[in-house]
Amino acid sequence: MSDATTPVAALKDGIRRFAEARGWEPYHTPKNLVMALASEVGELCEVFRWLTPDESRGASADPQLRAAIADELADVANIVFLLSVHTGIDLSEAVRAKTAKNAIKYPPPAPPPPESGPGSGGGPPGEDAGQ
Ligand SMILES: [Mg+2]
Hints:
Strand content: under 5%
Bound molecules: magnesium ion
Oligomer: single chain
């Protein structure tokens, strides 16, 4: 099972069936799930607490930290999937729509204007070398 080959629907159905088999669905109100999501995000934060920026970049290379990150990331994802199930919001469509909104809100930076003047040549850096 990997991200490359696993549909979101399979993950949502898997956690839904897990909860159903344990009789947890009555507790899975949107309010409770959002509270649980905040708790699980807090647990993920705890893994990175006090790490320097460089240490945080390398954390997933440490087997013990990697396992802790994976566990908490999975908890966060499972609650997001349950929120999607219990609100009827299609997660893939929501991500697509929000990314489209963000593309308008945060356009990519414009390319820098071409340089002009003697010796600039307008070509790639280093093109003038040796002249
Ligand atoms: Mg957890």
